[in-house]
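Predict the holo structure. Ligand: zinc ion.
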Amino acid sequence: MQPESDSRGVDSLMMIALRWVVTLLLVSVAVGPLDVSAQLAVLDEPWLSPQSCDAIRDPIRIEPLDEVTFVLRESPCVDREAPFLFLLIGTERALLVDSGTQDGVFLAEVVGQKLAETSLGFADLTVAHTHSHLDHRSGDGTFADTGATVVGPTVEEVREFWNLEAWPEGVASLDLGDRLIEVLPIPGHNDNSIALFDHRTRVLLSGDSMIRGKINVTDLTAFRQSVARLSRFIDGVHPRVILGGHLERDNLSLGLAPATVEELAVLSERVSFVRPFARGDHFTVVYLRPVLVAIGGGFLLLIGGLLRGLVVAVKRRRS
Ligand SMILES: [Zn+2]
């Protein structure tokens, strides 16, 4: 009898252990590879405003999302654009997304300190950009003598580095070591804009193509197609949150819910050459070409009026 009782005890212990394993598996599937929700809440806090510059010393504020994921924001006291940069560290490589507005040494120091906490160095670092506007890549020179790989600013250089032969179609991937990054071309704000999806945190980095606030569009056809591709991509990967490159409306969260891409799609269809502005709950899409044409036309009319007045005045003086 005793041995039978022992075997039943062992069986029930095994069942309990099995239930634990199944429960843990189900929880991990439900939560995803890593839950950074609590850390993302930090981004809901107000960031620095230019009015608070007197109290500001550090040119960059750093918020860790986890021990190998860092959100870096340039101080608005250094530059009004105050862009966000992102440092993603894997077991074999690290990726800095955007380099900001400054060609100073402090960015390399900050990134170097974070790399030093791992087994990686600058030789393992790639500096890439969400797009080539200067407020996102002026810090590239900081890494010139470090041994880091810096992706160039032209469409050809971006396409070649990411091996996106069918640009703007296709999705590229980069394995940082236990950390897969996927890259989707989304031209329209800029001709070489990309979005980057980090599978570890399930954060999607959208640059200036999808930020809370004003989104300038230079190529409307390309932008509409990019938003449609981005929407399909989001449906496939289910990001936890979308983080843009700036915070344009004070005291609002940097993070955007994935579903807001549908609002962006509606607004991008609403703007046109005759109606260049469309405002929604999260975004204001501005089609720059007609705005620039109107400004240029107004400037020419002003110059023409001044010249005409000058000619009339000279004629009157002579007569
Ligand atoms: Zn931009």
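The longest strand covers residues 60-66. The radius of gyration is 25 Å.
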